[in-house]
Amino acid sequence: MAARCRQNAKAKANVCTPVLLHSCILIRKSLPIPCSRPSRFCKSLRLPPSHLGIPQKSMTMRKIAKLLLAAMLVVPAMVSAKNKVVVVMVDGYRWQELFRGADSTLVNTKEFGNPDMMKADFWRPTADERRSALMPFTWSHIAKNGVMIGNRDKGCRMSVTNNMWFSYPGYNETLCGYPDDKNVNSNAPVDNPNMTVFEVANNTPEYHGKVLVFGSWGRFIQIFNEKRSGLEVNANYRHSLAKQPTERELYVDKMQDGTPRYWEEERFDVFTHEYAIEAMKSRHPELLFVGYGDTDEWAHAGNYRLYLEAANDVDRFIRELWETAQADPFYKDQTTFIITCDHGRGVSADKGWFHHSREVDRSNETWLMAFGAGVPAKGVLTSGEYHNNQVAATVASLLGISFAPQHEGAGKAITF
To answer: Hey, how many other C-beta atoms are within 10 angstroms of the C-beta on 317?
Structure first.
């Protein structure tokens, strides 16, 4: 700040910084009578000479000094404003549906769901119309105001670098910044030996206690290594972990308890989403993770109709997260959203789309979307090779924290 002031003094220019320009407007509005001998500063405001003499000038200049001092006090707050980041992961959601919409073969197969329902909800004559029907917010807002990576039909590719091609290794790579096939090679409930970028952020003075994690799958408790990291991980069928739950959180607790546990270690996404939304409103985390899982579960069950409905729900969830951020001055215009997945799925027309693993061709293919603060409106990228090991470094870059894992295969931040 001092260096900037010295530079402005040396320049002796009549050009105002945005803060000073705002101050000039406030001063001009607050002065019924300007000073008698206009200075360069006063001339820049186009204030006419006063006819009321020195006493009025003295009073006016004191008022100017007070207003300028108030304006200078605003500058540090503006400079120190931190970017907030929301990371959303959609388990096992294919890039094919994201960029093409509903699959023509699968929506017409009774084995995979009611064709009439699927076609009524998500089938349209063109791929552009189908993808908009499936994910309306994505294509009406994110595609126009952000960046979308991984549309292989257009020449842009994204994939995992681990050799497992399933969930825990995919989350580890994405959140820690590198694959670890030696230590992370199953979905077993084993604490992650690697440190996520969320744990790194929570260990900094700037973000300590300002990081929250919400996920449908119970394994997030181990992926984020809750015991070591000290992170608060609301996953599986846990209730709100807030010290003083809001009325809304207590209601979600009750609704979750009253819903059948269809999957033993994974709740329905709507509960995860409601906890995350309420935490944004009441606790203002500056780094937030939300992990949705219904897409993967319904795909494994071979129910394409519910897979599509789950994807449509995720699109609505993302819209609600964004609208919540934009309605709150704490987040408005200073929050970046990163949306991605942990792995892809098979592509065969029979039951190949059910599964994903090293043995299932092309289930390493992924995608990423980014929008919000600091992200240019580039839309769907048509070239480039990207990987999930770049996501953690990208989050760190957005937060402005040091993140340099000394591990083979660590990725570099994506430059949007």
So the answer is: 22
What gap in Å lies between CA 254 and CA 257, rounded to an integer? 5
Chain centroid to Cα 190, Å, comes to 27
What is the DSSP pairing of strand 335-340 with strand 368-372?
antiparallel
Report the distance separating Cα 96 and Cα 98, nearest Å.
Answer: 5
pLDDT in tens, 59-106: 455 555 555 444 444 433 333 357 999 999 999 999 999 999 999 999
Q: How far apart are CA 337 and CA 85, in angstroms?
A: 6
| DSSP category for residue 258 | T
Contacts of 396 (CB under 8 A, 6+ apart): 197, 200, 201, 402, 403, 413
Please answer whether residues 313 and 88 qualify as being in contact, where contact means their C-beta atoms are separated by less than 8 angstroms. no
| C-alpha atoms less than 13 angstroms from C-alpha of 404 in its C-beta half-sphere | 1
Of 1-15, 103-117, 185-199, 360-374, the poorest mean pLDDT is in: 1-15
Position of tokens 């096939």? 181
> Residue 189: how many CA atoms within 13 Å on its side-chain side?
8
CA distance 112 to 268: 20
From its phi and psi, is residue 266 left (phi > 0), alpha (psi between -120 and 50) or beta?
Answer: beta
Q: List the one residue out of 378, 389, 412, 167 whose CA is nearest residue 291.
A: 167
DSSP run (H or E) holding 211: strand 211-215
Backbone angles phi, psi at 149, to 5 degrees: -115, 140
DSSP, collapsed to helix, strand or coil, labels residue 351 as coil
